[in-house]
Amino acid sequence: KPGFAAWGGPCGVVVLQTDLDEELLSEGLARETVHRIQQLRKQRRLPYEAHIRLWLTGADRLVEASRRFRDYIEKETLADRLLFEERSEMERFEVEGEELRVGLEVV
Fold it and tell me: Are 101 and 56 spatial neighbours (Cβ–Cβ below 8 Å)?
C-alpha cells in the first residue's frame, strides 16, 4: 500500500508509515544545511572548538527550514549568532537543487 512499508518474520510483522510530513522534510533540510556549514568550517581549517557567527540566505524553503531549526543549527555548528541576511563574502552551496548562501566568521 502506498505510504507504508512492511516486513514479516517468524515473530511477527512490522509496518512503517513512510510518508514524510512537512516537519520531517524541514528537519532534513536543516541537517543538510549543517552539513554544508561543517564543510565550510573544514575548508577554512577552523579548530573544532571555534565559535562562529553565521549568515544564511538563499531559497525560501531552505531559509524557512533553517529558521524553524535555528537552535539545532546553532548548537551543531557552534554558532553564537545566526543571521538571515546577506553579507559581502558568502559561499554558495546547492541543497536539494536549491541555492544556499553561507557567510561565516570566527568570533
Answer: yes
Close Cβ partners of 70 (under 8 Å, ≥ 6 residues apart): 82
* Single-letter residue type at 11: C
- Cell representation of residue 35: 552539513
Q: Which residues contact 20 (CB under 8 A, 6 or more apart)?
A: 28
Cα separation of 95 and 102, whole Å?
Answer: 12
Angle between helices 70-77 and 60-68 (to 10 degrees): 80
The neighbouring-strand residues paired with 17 are: 4
Helix, strand or coil, per DSSP, at residue 5:
strand
What pLDDT, in 10s, does the model give residues 59-87? 999 999 999 999 999 999 999 999 999 99
pTM score, whole prediction: 0.82
Contact 89, 103 (CB under 8 A): yes
